[in-house]
Every structure is written in C-alpha cells, then in structure tokens.
Write a structure and sequence with these properties.
Elements (H helix, E strand, L loop, with lengths): L3 E3 L2 E3 L1 H8 L2 H4 L4 H17 L9 H19 L12 H13 L1 H5 L6 H37 L4 E6 L2 E7 H26 L1 E2 L15 H7 L4 E2 L3 H6 L3 H27 L7 E2 L18 H24 L14 H21 L4 E2 L1 H6 L7 H10 L4 H10 L9 H6 L11 H30 L9
Helix pairs in contact: 3-4, 3-7, 3-9, 4-5, 7-8, 7-11, 7-13, 7-18, 8-11, 8-18, 11-12, 11-13, 12-13, 15-16
The structure holds arginine.
C-alpha cells in the first residue's frame, strides 16, 4: 500500500492506523482544551522578545478568534480529526493553517506535541475534577439532608451483616456523607498535583528561544509551571494515574453505598425503596423492578480499578523522556473519570428520592440488639465489664427487646442520634466554596485569555 502523507512524514497506512489508534475519536474530547492551550501559547509567542515579533497583536487576535471558532465547531459536532491528522494537535494546526496561512504554520514554534498533550490532559483533568467535585458535594448534600431528617429513625446496626447494636437511618446516611467528604480531600490532593503547567517544556528538554513559561501557566490558571522541563514530560501518565486513583476512592464509597441500598431494599429487609422509575423491569417476570443502577455502580468499581492499573502500569518502568506508550493511558484516563462522574451524578439524583419505611426498620429489632446495652447498664452500677458481659452471655434469652425509638435517642454525643451533622455540614459548606472559587478562577482566566465568556463562548 502506498504511504500516506502526514505532517510528520509519509507513513504506511497500516502503521498510521495502528499508531494513531483511537486518538481521532478520543481526542474529540480534547479539542476545547487543546484550543485553550494554544491560545495561551500564541499569546506568549506574541510577547516573546524577538525582532520582528512572531505574531503581531492583530495576528494573535485572529488566531485566538479562530481557536474559539474551532471550539464552537467541536461543540456542534462538526470538527473532524482525520487519520492523517493523527491527533487533535495536528488537526487544529491544519485548520488554523487553512484559515490563516502562515499564522497557522507558526503556531507550533517552541512547542512539541509532547508538552501540548500534557497540558491538554491537565486542563481536561482540571475541568473533569471540578465537575466531579461538584457532583460529589451534591450527593453529600442529599445524604446530609437524609441524615438530618431520619436522625431519630431507628435502624438495626450490623457487623458481619448480623444484628449488632441500635443505630439510626441518620447515622447510616451521614456515614456515607463523611466518607465522601474525606474522599474530597483525596480529590483536592489530586487537583493540586494536577495544577502545574507543563507547557514550554516542548519535547522534554526546553527550547533555545526565550519562552515565558510563567506567563502561559498564569494565563491558563495553573499554580505554577512544572520547574524541570524533563519532569514535565515524565509526569505525563503519572498525573493521570494520580487523578484516577483519587477518583477510584470515590468509586469505592459509591459501590459500598450501592451495596447497602441493594440489600436494604430487598423485600426481606424492606427498609428502603425507590420510585419505580429508578428501577428496570424484566423481559419475562412482570412483577420485577430491579436495582440495576446500583448493581452497575457496584460493578464499575472493578473497571475503575482497572483504569488506575492501566495508567499506573503504563508508566511503571518506562524510561525517562517521552515514550509513545503514554498515548495508551489516555483512554483509561477518560473512561475512569467518566464512570465515577456518571455514578456520582445518578446517585445524587436518587438519594433525595429514597423512601424510608419506618415499620420495616422497627420490625427488624429483636432482643439481641440490646444485649450489649444490658451489659453496659450493669457496668453503671459498678460491675466490671467482663463480668457483666459473661452474665448476659449466659442468660441471653432473658434480655428483653427494648423500644427502638427510645433506644436511638438515649445517648449523645457519639450515638446514633448524634451523627456529627453540624461538623459535616460545615465541611460540606467549606468544600463547596472552595470548589466554586476554583471554578470561578479557572473560568475567569480562560475567559480573559479567549476574549469571550467561558464556558459559554457566547459572543
Ligand atoms: N497522540 C500523541 C500522544 O498521545 C501525541 C504526542 C505524539 N508525540 C510524539 N512524539 N509522537 O502521546
């Protein structure tokens, strides 16, 4: 077969198809961030101390306007990446050259696709992480509301799934809220890791022209440039792996929450139920309304883990400097974040609609749930705990089933009717303002750079 002409040489069509892989499809999700990165790059080039200047003000403006036009075509689905383009980077360059001639041919000055894709993935990671954080906080909000509303609603607390001690629906719900607030801490750590700019590192060794890396970093709303240009290249893949593993912690929490919901909405428990439209039916059994959403979330935890392993496995043992292996981390990166976001968003929609059945919750109580309480009552009158424990164990059948409602309310703080809601609400509020601040900061920086409001891109 005849070799195909590309910007980077004539390539055998099968080699081209193999090396390009899924990039022409996957990179459609990177068009916006690629244009944003290029806007910062051209803004920097236009200020670079060179005579004559690489880009005049008018040329810089024209390039940025064209980049915005490309972003719009990406949104309406008409931007195409061809196999000969290989990836989004060369597709955007082709389009700029078609429209603007030499300005398009100059855009890749002092840049490599290596730093270009690295900055794209960090911008993509930032956008996705901020969206995920918003979705996590929405779910936390639902769980905390549920926690407050059902704080005094008795529920059998279980260990090994066996009845253990008195608990409440509020304690159950807010436990998952707290787990997610802790997961937010992990997401923030990943956010900070991600928030450094690789642009200007070029192929990994810098360029012998006076690029201003601090300027591009600032224009794009990053904390700072990555100090060492070789590390800027080496950090590709590692960064994706850090983000994915942070997301995976959220996925673990969601899968456990789903597992509880599946169990407690079985008719044999009957504690909870969802409106029928949140389940799916069976093609043969007319009565069915199955918790497929929750099962899919439980199942996705292993796929999310596979994404973390794919990304970290690709970088482990890789020699320093750019290697094409890194392209293989792109798909698990996008897939892993996407599935956590979808799962979080759908649970955020379902939790406020969860129906709680007080009669079933109360009917599940038996005397065994009160055995520890009886032993502790004896302690209050001076009996050593182990002595009290033994005597209750020997006469378990004498333990009476208490009133679940009274039992829930009987001790605070740290009991089933406490649940730490005040502190959790405070953490939720603080986290939400931090996310909003980061979103505003990023949107502000990009709007200023593009000269149009972002993300709206309205004129
Ligand atoms: N699609 C490529 C990737 O994801 C872009 C970088 C290509 N760089 C190169 N030196 N071949 O890695």
């Amino acid at each position: 077969m005849k070799a195909r002409k590309t910007v980077v040489g004539d390539i055998d069509p099968r080699v081209l198809a193999f090396t390009t892989g899924r990039d022409p499809v996957l990179d459609l999700a990177l068009v916006e961030v690629d244009c944003i990165g290029s806007a910062a790059h051209v803004a920097m080039l236009s200020r670079m101390p060179m005579h004559p200047r690489l880009f005049t003000d008018a040329q810089r403006k024209a390039v940025i306007a064209e980049l915005v036009a490309i972003m719009r075509t990406a949104r309406d689905g008409t931007f195409k990446i061809r196999v000969q383009d290989q990836d989004v980077h060369l597709a955007v360059e082709r389009r700029l050259t078609q429209k603007l001639g030499d300005s398009g041919r100059k855009i890749h000055t002092a840049r490599s696709r290596n730093d270009q894709v690295a900055v794209d993935l960090r911008l993509y990671g930032k956008v996705e992480l901020l969206a995920l954080m918003g979705e996590v906080l929405e779910l936390v909000n639902g769980l905390l509301r549920m926690g407050k509303r059902f704080l005094a609603e008795p529920m059998v607390g279980r260990t090994h799934l066996q009845p253990a001690m008195v608990s409440s629906v509020g304690l159950w719900a807010s436990a998952y809220a707290e787990a997610l607030l802790d997961d937010m801490g992990v997401l923030w750590a990943a956010y900070d890791f991600n928030n450094r700019c690789p642009l200007g590192s070029a192929a990994g060794y810098g360029v012998p022209v006076p690029v201003d890396r601090a300027l591009t970093s600032r224009l794009l709303g990053f904390d700072a440039p990555i100090a060492n240009v070789l590390y800027a290249s080496n950090a590709r893949g590692k960064c994706e792996s850090v983000l994915l593993s942070a997301c995976h912690h959220v996925m673990i929490t969601l899968s456990r929450l789903s597992s509880d919901l599946i169990l407690y909405s079985m008719p044999e428990f009957g504690y909870f139920s969802f409106p029928r439209e949140f389940g799916t039916g069976s093609s043969i059994m007319p009565q069915k309304n199955n918790p497929d959403v929750l099962e899919l979330i439980r199942g996705k935890v292993s796929r999310s883990q596979a994404c973390v392993m794919a990304a970290s496995g690709i970088v482990g043992g890789l020699p320093g400097g750019y290697n094409r292996d890194l392209q293989e981390a792109k798909e698990p990166f996008m897939e892993g974040i996407g599935m956590v976001r979808d799962s979080t968003a759908i649970l955020g929609m379902m939790i406020p609609r969860l129906e709680v059945h007080g009669d079933a919750l109360r009917a599940a109580f038996d005397s065994s749930v009160f055995a520890t309480d009886v032993a502790l009552e004896a302690v209050a009158s001076g009996v050593p705990f182990r002595t009290a424990y033994r005597s209750v164990k020997e006469r378990l059948k004498d333990v009476e089933c208490g009133d679940p409602d009274q039992a829930v309310a009987r001790f605070q703080p740290g009991g089933p009717a406490d649940a730490g809601l005040v502190e959790l609400k405070k953490r939720h509020t603080e986290s939400r303002s931090a996310v909003r601040k980061a979103v505003r900061g990023f949107h502000g920086a990009v709007s200023k750079l593009l000269g149009v409001p972002y993300p709206e891109l309205s004129v």
